[in-house]
Amino acid sequence: MTTTTSPQGRTELLRPDRTPVRVLVVDDEAPLTELLSMALRYEGWEVRSAGDGAGAVRAARDFRPDAVVLDVMLPDMDGLSVLGRLRREYDDVPVLFLTARDSVEDRIAGLTAGGDDYVTKPFSLEEVVARLRGLIRRSGSAVAAGRGESTLVVGDLVLDEDSHEVSRGGDAIHVTATEFELLRFLMRNPRRVLSKAQILDRVWNYDFGGQANVVELYISYLRKKIDAGRTPMIHTRRGAGYLIKPGE
């Protein structure tokens, strides 16, 4: 998998043959499936859907997806059973579970069975897209083709995903590993408001148990480094979250 950068600053993921990433969406709720498929196609990805477990297995064999979005509750078999069948043939494809159940036991069951991540309904489309992008990249199939193609740009702020270098207006900015991940998440979603919960899930992977104050703390760290003495780029939307956009 290679990456390129769109004019909006969003990193595009591509297969080795330069064709779009493929995602299989499995859910028996047709309106939800269509809405999610539209959001993924907006990312430039190729999407195929299935409404039950048997259809999912058939689609996976034919479509060869790079990632799977899988509902836990399906009409013919549960998502864990579908995952087991997929894993026997495609042991490295990332799987993101969708479920209406939010108990710790359900989450552990899904992840123990081989799922890579877990989103509870109702969810935001932005969250699902962000989770999928992270899963695809972390799977090892998303490798930057070369310097420049792995660069995120928002206004005069530049982040190189390969070298972990950050600069604004040509001036180098030193950031810690956690600050880098937070800034990368913001820059992958320019002009989009990201909630504290989304940021916690994406950057800290639940490690802080929902302690939103850690997000505020690291946002303040980034502001001191990115915005100090310059037109602010990182903005707060009270009651909603944070976003990054070019300085105006």
From TrEMBL:
GO CC field: cytosol; protein-DNA complex
Modified residues (4-aspartylphosphate): D71
Entry keyword NAD: no
CDD domains attached to this UniProt entry: REC_OmpR_MtPhoP-like, trans_reg_C
SUPFAM superfamilies: C-terminal effector domain of the bipartite response regulators, CheY-like
Residue ranges constituting the OmpR/PhoB-type domain according to the UniProt record: 149-246
Keyword Cell cycle: no
DNA-binding region location: 149-246
Entry keywords, A to Z: DNA-binding, Phosphoprotein, Transcription, Transcription regulation, Two-component regulatory system
GO molecular function: phosphorelay response regulator activity; transcription cis-regulatory region binding
GO biological process, one term: regulation of DNA-templated transcription
Alphabetized InterPro entries for the sequence: CheY-like_superfamily, OmpR/PhoB-type_DNA-bd, Sig_transdc_resp-reg_C-effctor, Sig_transdc_resp-reg_receiver, WalR-like, WH-like_DNA-bd_sf
Domain Response regulatory as annotated: residue spans: 22-136
Pfam families: Response_reg, Trans_reg_C
SMART domains with a match to the protein in the record: REC (SM00448), Trans_reg_C (SM00862)
PANTHER family xref list: REGULATOR OF RPOS, TRANSCRIPTIONAL REGULATORY PROTEIN TCRX-RELATED
Name this protein carries in UniProt: Response regulator transcription factor
